[in-house]
Structure formats: structure tokens, C-alpha cells
């Protein structure tokens, strides 16, 4: 009887038991933080990729002809016909290797910039947008009830381009 009371009143292992209850939540929190930091880095890479594509398109001749752009302003390279965008993706593929032309939407819009000394008073406003780019969680996909992936949209950049 005496030993039973002593064992019942002994609290030497209580800390280990309490820690065993809290440890799964702490591990989930740590791995969740790692996943969300990687997600925010993926957002940054996607925005940087759109910026690189827009700069590449702004420095070269437009993918759309001047007559097509003026006929339907703004002109989307998704619904209309444009030149191949693959060469402009080379610098962005260094950031996002799985990026393809299907993930990029390019829109040209003729904007009046009011330049008196310029023969054409408008320039193309180039908008580059990433679509259907998702981030797959590394650790949180194993947690029930949480999605295994999130879209990395909207990653969009707009720059003023040049005519021919």
C-alpha cells in the first residue's frame, strides 16, 4: 500500500508526458512554417519570372503586329495569334524550370503617351501574367484537411514596350 501511494504521488515523469502531448503540434507548426516560407519564395520567383519575361518582350519587337493591335485593343495573345513566346522564356526558366508557354498570358494594349515629337503617339503596354502555376506543399500535404497544393497566382507585370 505504501509503495502504491508513493508511485501515485510521484511527478517526476509528468514533464515528459506533457511534452509528448505538445510535441506533435510543435513539429507540425515548424514544418508548416517551412512550407509557407517556401510558398512565399515561390510567389517571389513567379513575380520575378513575369518581370523578366516582360522586360524581354519590351526590349524586342512586339509579338503582335501593329495593325492587329490597333484593330482590337487590348490584344491578348491567348485568344489571338502572336509570335512564339518561347525565346522570351529563356531567362525566366532559370528561375522556374517547369515554366512553359502555356503558363504565360501576354496582353498588348496600345496606350497614348502623348509624345509630340514621336511619329506614333502610342506605345504597347505589355502585361505578362502567369496562369496554372501551383505550389505543392512538401510537408503539409500529409496533414488531413489541408490542400496539397495552392495556386501561385496572380503573378503579373506590366511594362511599356517599343514598336519596331
Please give a structural write-up.
The structure is a single chain. Helix content is 37%, strand content 20%. The termini are far apart. It has one domain (10-160). It has 164 residues and is of the alpha+beta class. The model has no long low-confidence stretch (mean pLDDT 83). The chain has a four-stranded antiparallel β-sheet. A two-stranded antiparallel sheet has the order 4-5. The chain is rod-shaped, with a radius of gyration of 27 Å.
Count of distinct structural domains = 1
Write down how many β-strands occur, each being a DSSP E stretch of 2 or more residues. 6
Using the CA coordinates, give the radius of gyration.
27 Å
The percent of residues in helical segments reads: 25-40%
Strand order of the largest sheet: 1-2-3-6
Q: Catalogue the unreliable spans.
A: none
Largest sheet: 4 strands, antiparallel
- Alpha-beta content class: alpha+beta
Instruction: Give the count of helical stretches.
Output: 3
Between the first and last Cα atoms, what is the distance in angstroms? 98 Å
Mean pLDDT: 83
What is the molecular shape? rod-shaped
- The succession of helices and strands, N to C, reads HHHEEEEEE
Strand content: 15-25%
Task: Describe the structure concisely for a colleague.
The chain has 164 residues and is of the alpha+beta class. The chain has three helices and six strands; from the N terminus they run αααββββββ.
Amino acid at each position: 500500500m505504501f509503495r502504491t501511494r508513493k508511485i501515485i504521488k510521484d511527478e517526476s515523469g509528468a514533464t515528459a508526458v506533457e511534452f509528448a502531448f505538445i510535441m506533435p503540434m510543435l513539429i507540425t507548426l515548424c514544418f508548416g512554417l517551412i512550407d509557407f516560407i517556401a510558398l512565399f519564395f515561390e510567389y517571389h520567383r513567379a513575380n520575378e519570372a513575369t518581370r523578366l519575361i516582360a522586360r524581354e518582350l519590351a526590349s524586342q519587337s512586339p509579338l503582335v503586329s501593329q495593325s492587329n493591335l490597333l484593330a482590337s485593343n487590348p490584344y491578348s495573345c491567348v485568344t489571338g495569334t502572336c509570335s512564339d513566346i518561347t525565346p522570351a522564356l529563356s531567362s525566366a526558366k532559370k528561375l522556374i524550370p517547369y515554366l512553359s508557354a502555356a503558363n504565360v498570358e501576354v496582353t498588348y494594349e496600345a496606350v497614348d503617351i502623348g509624345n509630340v515629337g514621336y511619329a506614333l503617339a502610342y506605345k504597347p503596354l505589355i502585361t505578362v501574367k502567369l496562369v496554372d502555376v501551383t505550389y505543392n506543399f512538401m510537408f503539409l500535404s500529409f496533414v488531413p484537411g489541408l490542400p496539397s497544393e495552392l495556386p501561385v497566382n496572380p503573378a503579373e507585370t506590366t511594362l511599356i514596350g517599343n514598336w519596331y
